[in-house]
Amino acid sequence: INESKRAHNMTTHDYAIGLPRQPDMSDETLQKASWLGYRWFIGEEFDVFDVKLPDFTITRPVTMTKLRSIVARLYDPLGIVAELTLELRYLMRRLTKAGYGNAPSNAKGEILNDDDADAAIDTITWCDNILKSDRVWAPRYTPLDTIYAFADASEASIGIDIRTIDGVRLVARMTTVPGGSIPRRELESIRLLLVTLQDILRAARGSVHNCIILGDSSITLFRIKALLRDPTCKKVVSLPRPERRRLDQIYNMVRQMRIDDPHLTISFCHIRSMYNLADRLTRPRSLYDPSNTPTWTVVKNELNEPSLVAFKVNEFLRFEDDEVIDTLSDSLSSDASPMGVYPKE
Q1: Which of 7, 260, 305, 328 is 20 to 30 A from 312 via CA?
Q2: Where on the tree of life does the source sit, at the highest rank (predicted)?
């Protein structure tokens, strides 16, 4: 924290900065503001923020137009409540696949039948109850010396969840775009994770010293390990082009992160699925019991146990590998289909 720039929370005690808290709304000294589209609350014991509470009121008849309007009201670019965003996206995706919509190709039209309307209202009500519950809010200042980055993928979604050493969520993102095999989607989750990590590292300006990337796919981690050891090895070159392109992007991003900050330590580790926090962002509550989500203390204890796959990028990646990268890129280009267009994945 730059003390010379603490213009808005000078009354906050030092010990309270960086701690997740539930603000005391009865505090007479409470300050309220808007920060990057979020609600910001400052007091002597807290400096926290949360999403702005959307109006999730819905009446019958339930139509797709009403649902689209409600879903668009939740603004959460950092993914503070990413689990709710997943529920809403999954709801709209399921209804669209069922044939609802105002397009001529949508057989069921705009108005939902009773069963689907009940399910939609249940999802909206569940999200509204979570938003209005006594949740612990995220602190505006967080330590960035060590960050843990979780990635996972399923047929329903690809998700990432980036945490601080104290378990505070920095960023969470997911995509519900369908298609591709699970191994390919697992690679895509790592690629999406690295894109987000690059943004964090640029903004942190050298504050991050250790970055631990965690996933529950041992196949994906072994492929990345083989890639870092030798980008031209048979295990990499023999893969289908979609996987090779993603591995090529992963290699280039990891290498660029090392070049931008030579003192940064990047590690890849395997973690069991039940402790992978990104797993919650790949399955809606109909396929996952939220009560089974482990606490950060339990996850940290698991991280201290021996891992099936664990390696440091610093042990493999050398800065003199420019010719290797050029060779790999040429290999990928030579395998492309005519006119440089790849076949549909």
Answers
A1: 328
A2: Eukaryota
Whether residues 190 and 119 share a domain: the answer is no
Residue 181: pLDDT band by 50, 70, 90 thresholds? very high
CA 182 to chain centroid, in Å, comes to 17
Distances from the Cα of 207 to the Cα of 144, 166, 188, 272, 306, angstroms: 6, 16, 27, 29, 28
Give CA–CA dist 299/16, Å, rounded: 24
* Residue 138, strand partner residues: 49
Range of the domain at 236: 143-336
Is the residue at 242 inside a domain? Answer: yes
Residue that terminates a domain, selected from 141, 163, 186: 141
Residues 204 and 146: beta-carbon distance below 8 Å: no
Split at pLDDT 50, 70, 90, the class of 28 is confident
Residue 39 lies in a domain: yes
Could you give the CA distance from residue 117 to residue 115 in angstroms, rounded to a whole number? 5
150 shares its domain with 133: no
Q: Is residue 1 situated within a structural domain? A: no
Residue that is written with structure tokens 């894109």 in the block: 195
| 89-144 confidence digits (pLDDT tens) | 999 999 999 999 877 777 788 999 999 999 999 999 999 999 999 899 999 888 89
> How many residues are listed for the chain in this entry?
345
| Rounded distance between C-alpha atoms, residue 38 and residue 29, angstroms | 20
84, 130 Cβ separation under 8 angstroms:
yes
Exposure of 242 in the CB half-sphere (CA atoms within 13 A): 13
Last residue of a domain, one of 94, 124, 141: 141
Tell whether the model's pLDDT for residue 331 goes beyond 60: no
